[in-house]
Amino acid sequence: xxxxxxxxxxxxxxxxxxxxxxxxxxxxxxxxxxxxxxxxxxxxxxxxxxxxxxxxxxxxxxxxxxxxxxxxxxxxxxxxxxxxxxxxxxxxxxxxxxxxxxxxxxxxxxxxxxxxxxxxxxxxxxxxxxxxxxxxxxxxxxxxxxxxxxxxxxxxxxxxxxxxxxxxxxxxxxxxxxxxxxxxxxxxxxxxxxxxxxxxxxxxxxx
Length: 207
Prior knowledge:
Layout: E1 5-8, E2 13-16, E3 19-21, H1 24-28, H2 39-59, H3 72-85, E4 88-98, E5 103-113, E6 116-123, H4 130-151, E7 157-163, E8 169-173, H5 174-181, H6 185-200
Parallel strand pairs: 6-7
Antiparallel strand pairs: 1-2, 2-3, 4-5, 5-6, 7-8
């Protein structure tokens, strides 16, 4: 039976067939160690959203003619990443969901890099510490699981691309972070999902 995914932009919530489910962002958000009500954190979130919008326009061949001066470096960094890694994007800003586990989210990018099916998440964090890398690994696992469930295509690589204000970028490979810090991203993500469901009162039943 076909499933219908609905996203409420005002509340940033997802529903599958009318049943509310948590997002990947909410799930890994349990690992947050910052106050999301902090004005600086909110400002950073707005900046990240704008950079995502501009990067999407670049990928669709509609690079903006004018950009806020404070964001120019981030877009230079993204163009540098595209030049160096030469990805062939198959999916850009694509909504996904899992009916077996009951969660959803929006995949930044998925495509072929060096002949491998690769998930890429665009980051604008000023720094990328241990916690950020742990969150990334869990986040990438969650997206990969949804994609593989939906399309039956195995994801080979998962990476976060940290765009920086000075026009440079750093690639963080999710699998390597899990190995370096000695944790199982799959196990941790499922644990976070179950906790999120309990806290949020989500009622999704496996289909």
